[in-house]
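Thread: quick sanity check before group meeting

JM: Hey all, I'm pulling together slides for Thursday and realized we never actually wrote out the predicted structure for the chain we discussed last week. Dropping the sequence here so it's in one place. If anyone has concerns about the input, flag it before I start.
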Amino acid sequence: MPKPSSIKTAQIVLVLKLALVLFMLVLALLLLVIPDSFSSGWSSYRSKTIDTMFGLAPQEYKAGHFGIVAINLAPSIILIALTLFFIHRRKRMASIILALLALWFSSNNVIQLVLSFAVVVLLFTRSSRSYFAAGADAPGAEVPAEAERQEETEPTAEPESEKETASEDAEGERSGTKPEAAAAARRKPSADPVVEIREADAGDAEVVHALMMEAFEEYRAAVPPSSALDETVESVRAALESGSESAAILYEDGIPGAMVRFRYDEDAIYFFRLSVLPARRKRGYARQLVQWIEQRGRSKGLAISRCRVRQSVHRNLILYENMGYEIKDQELIVRPGGTVKTLTLEKNLGPY
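JM (edit): ok, ran it. Output follows.
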């Protein structure tokens, strides 16, 4: 389901509101330009409509009255159009503010007032909040998600701004990697970077591990904490060397900014530990890595792309659903630190 029903309904209601406002504007114009001799019933309809809309006699209706109608309707048209735009861009606060303003400008029309109120209510539903939190459909938005290799997906929360560390050496020690690897991941790319995705080998284990550690660090205090934090450079290198799993790294101007690990599972490609650095989010990199995984699966003649997510993290679920993934299974995983409800999602890769 690309969008929750609440968002779909809100968009439909807004389009209906816009259509009604435009109809009134067009009608006001037609009353001005179409002569009374147009048809046998037009003169009577025109007289009644002008009297209803403006309280004027037909002969008193002038171009100036149409201008007044246009000026009065313009704010509603602009507000409705902007609300639709910001809903599409997943900007929750802007959408709500504009919907409330549209409600205010609809106070003189009962139908428009009811429709506007319905839109405001729909934007405050839980499913709508999850949709806005995802932010995956909008250009430049990013909702990173990471999957546990043997267990569940651990999503990385979306920070409001870039997080800076006090020391690159401290970051390297914390993640278990060389300080140089952490420092390379923190260098800022250009304003319009060249983005490329390359498959990793065992020599890239430190970079893969460093990206994963930084993306998952905020989940150290989660219940239960992500098992990604228990992995080491050696365990990642061993998996890559043995061929039991593979990885792909996304680079900005040669700087590693995101990665995903994956393996082949019969007729499916299963990806996990999808990690995007906090400073590299909101750029669509999670989506690009998933698309890379899907293309790799097609090139191998596989039929399915598969991942797992925590059921409680709605934004990740919406991200994958927006990309065509469907829920196939659910599971309750019990670990010493707590329990996790997970959902298995799959996408049919189809012909390649």
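AS: nice. The longest helix spans residues 5-33. The two ends are 23 Å apart (CA to CA).
JM: adding both to the slides.
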